[in-house]
Design brief:
single chain; 233 residues; alpha/beta; TIM Barrel; 4-stranded parallel sheet; 12 helices; 7 strands
Amino acid sequence: MRALRRPADTAGALRFATASLVEHVRACTRAGVQAGFHCIGDAAVEQVLTAVGVVVEELGRAAVRACRHRLEHVEMAGPPAVARLREWGMVASVQPAFDAAWGGPAGMYAERLGPARALACNPLADLSAAGVALALGSDAPVTPLDPWGGVHAAVDHRTPGSGLRPVDAFAAATHGGWHAVRAEHPVGPLAVGAPAHLALWATEQTLPGVLAERARPACRLLLVDGAPVENPL
């Protein structure tokens, strides 16, 4: 059944008071742990950033940046929000498959938000260009657990100019997740002393070629802590 068309000014409801968010971010920052928030819409993103800004004023920018606070499902973030995400060292967890499923001039975003707001959804290129740390995910089972499909969707964004470069999409889908949860090794993902978590993909093409043709390389070898895993996907 087709969803009823909603007016472009339809808005959701904020679940928490801003003061509660301030208290949470403050407590996490003082403890040196990461705070995370589920905030899809621009009002929710703005509310979280307002709360983080209060804590920046109280405890300092360096203390906030050290925690690498994370926003899940950042779909609507304009230039001012993107600038604050970068300034405060925050991570944007994004799902490119959402754009593949619902983006474009006639998709669900356009139907629910209106075409102008819909085209601004999932501004992956703006986030990347600003230096905001990105982690690609699927939100499975909302969209399929398909990492290569997510990388393709990030590059082939339905809004021209909003997609990622192939190398940036691949990095966000791999190392981006480790960075997002503050679990990357200090020496880097590919360096002496780092854990040997590696995947060997069979392809005769370079990464741009794989993405341009939407190829699905086969995983020939998967190592976890240096040990082979049988029957890699």
